[in-house]
């Protein structure tokens, strides 16, 4: 079956070519609606409509265009049995389900995640993501984020092939951190992906990753949906996701199609409250509740941050202070809470790249909730 692609960033001539004589067309709602209204895309004979990332497409930003397309498709169909609508997403909040039901008749819900991994909080809003991955969390401070990320990426990329996806909160952070990670990972091409890039630049970035010319991607949440990269070995959250749904979609970039993968959250004190909110909305398989020992470690880190911020010669309140404050990662595999070990903080110098720092954590081994190999030592100083 021939397939066409209709998106922004291609010429009208290319668009007409992509829309003509194809058995399957993938496209963005706005461009598809334009072609339908212009009479350049016929819906005659249309049998199936699929909304991928349906929760996003049914949100306010896309809802009007999607609704117009579905109504036009149903008008072309000679009978209700001739058009089948399917919606797919790892997350389906209740309010989005209510919108979806406006466009579907007697819908059936199909869960493809293993039952043990699909236990959602609340009323089943989140179905699961990266259910075969090893899920880790590391408490650290802002100054050490990039060194830890670089060391984890370096370890994961020792073997040929594969890639690493690193998520940041803003477009500006993506740019700065991609540049710095390029310095920390000599020999690796670090790519950036964010919403201000035009379609051609996005496609070029994805081609570099798929061809193996780049193996590290630093991105905003734009990379959390609709992007399929071969063998993402680890997803690193340099910033906590804004919502549980975003966290699930980010995490779903790894452990795809039965492959193993690691999902690592680097948690700094400033984002602890946000993480607590996000974690409450996650299935247990993605991040189990914090143990008493973990809560105690968190309290100790907070106390150290406060003491360093108040002491003479420190970096100031909220900036982390003179020590690293990172702890051994916690691990969850298939919903089982892993063990946790703590270790003393290593000294950290507030200076250039030659400053010594403590050991960066290495992801624990898969299975059984065991803590993996002890981490190797690394070098580095202030990050930005």
From TrEMBL:
What residues does the Helicase ATP-binding domain cover? Answer: 1-110
CDD domains per UniProt: SF2_C_DEAD (cd18787)
- Hydrolase in keyword set: yes
> What does the record give as EC number?
3.6.4.13
Task: Indicate the enzyme's highest-level EC class.
Answer: hydrolase
Q: Which domain of life is it from?
A: Bacteria
Q: Which residues form the signal peptide?
A: none
Residue ranges of the region described as Disordered: 1-24, 301-384
> Any idea where the Helicase C-terminal domain is?
141-305
Bias class Gly residues marks the residues at 308-325
PROSITE patterns in the record: DEAD_ATP_HELICASE (PS00039), HELICASE_ATP_BIND_1 (PS51192), HELICASE_CTER (PS51194)
Q: Which GO terms describe its molecular function?
A: ATP binding; hydrolase activity; RNA helicase activity; RNA strand annealing activity
Pfam families from the entry?
Answer: DEAD, Helicase_C
Query: Transferase: is it a keyword of this entry?
Result: no
Task: Mark out the compositionally biased spans (Low complexity).
Answer: 326-341
Q: Compositional bias of type Basic and acidic residues: which residue ranges?
A: 342-351
Q: Which GO terms describe its biological process?
A: response to cold
Q: Which UniProt keywords apply?
A: ATP-binding, Helicase, Hydrolase, Nucleotide-binding, Plasmid
What does the sequence similarity comment in the record state about its family? Answer: Belongs to the DEAD box helicase family.
Q: What's the protein name?
A: RNA helicase
Origin species, per record, is: Deinococcus gobiensis (strain DSM 21396 / JCM 16679 / CGMCC 1.7299 / I-0)
Q: Which gene encodes it?
A: dbpA
């Amino acid at each position: 079956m021939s397939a066409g692609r209709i998106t922004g960033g291609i010429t009208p001539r290319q668009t007409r070519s992509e829309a003509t004589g194809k058995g399957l067309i993938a496209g963005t709602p706005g461009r598809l609606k334009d072609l339908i209204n212009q009479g350049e895309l016929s819906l005659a004979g249309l049998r199936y409509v699929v909304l991928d990332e349906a929760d996003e497409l049914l949100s306010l930003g896309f809802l009007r265009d999607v609704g117009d397309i579905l109504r036009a498709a149903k008008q072309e169909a000679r009978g209700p049995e001739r058009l089948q609508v399917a919606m797919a997403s790892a997350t389906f909040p209740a309010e989005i389900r209510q919108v979806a039901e406006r466009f579907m008749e007697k819908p059936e819900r199909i869960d493809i995640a293993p039952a043990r991994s699909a236990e959602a909080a609340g009323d089943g809003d989140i179905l699961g993501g990266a259910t075969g991955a090893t899920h880790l969390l590391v408490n650290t401070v802002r100054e050490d984020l990039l060194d830890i990320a670089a060391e984890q990426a370096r370890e994961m990329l020792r073997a040929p092939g594969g890639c690493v996806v690193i998520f940041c909160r803003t477009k500006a952070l993506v740019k700065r951190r991609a540049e710095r990670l390029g310095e920390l990972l000599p020999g690796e091409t670090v790519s950036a992906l964010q919403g201000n890039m035009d379609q051609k630049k996005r496609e070029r970035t994805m081609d570099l990753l798929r061809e193996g010319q780049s193996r590290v991607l630093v991105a905003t949440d734009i990379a959390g949906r609709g992007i399929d990269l071969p063998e993402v070995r680890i997803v690193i959250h340099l910033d906590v996701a804004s919502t549980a749904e975003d966290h699930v979609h980010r995490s779903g970039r790894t452990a795809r199609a039965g492959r193993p993968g690691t999902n690592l959250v680097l948690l700094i004190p400033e984002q602890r409250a946000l993480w607590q909110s996000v974690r409450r909305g996650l299935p247990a398989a993605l991040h189990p509740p914090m143990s008493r020992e973990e809560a105690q470690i968190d309290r100790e880190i907070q106390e150290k941050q406060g003491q360093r911020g108040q002491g003479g010669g420190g970096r100031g309140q909220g900036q982390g202070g003179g020590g690293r404050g990172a702890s051994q990662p916690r691990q969850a595999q298939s919903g089982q809470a892993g063990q946790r070990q703590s270790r003393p903080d290593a000294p950290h110098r507030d200076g250039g790249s030659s400053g010594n720092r403590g050991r960066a954590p290495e992801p624990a081994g898969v299975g059984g909730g065991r803590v993996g190999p002890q981490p190797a030592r690394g070098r580095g100083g202030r990050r930005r």
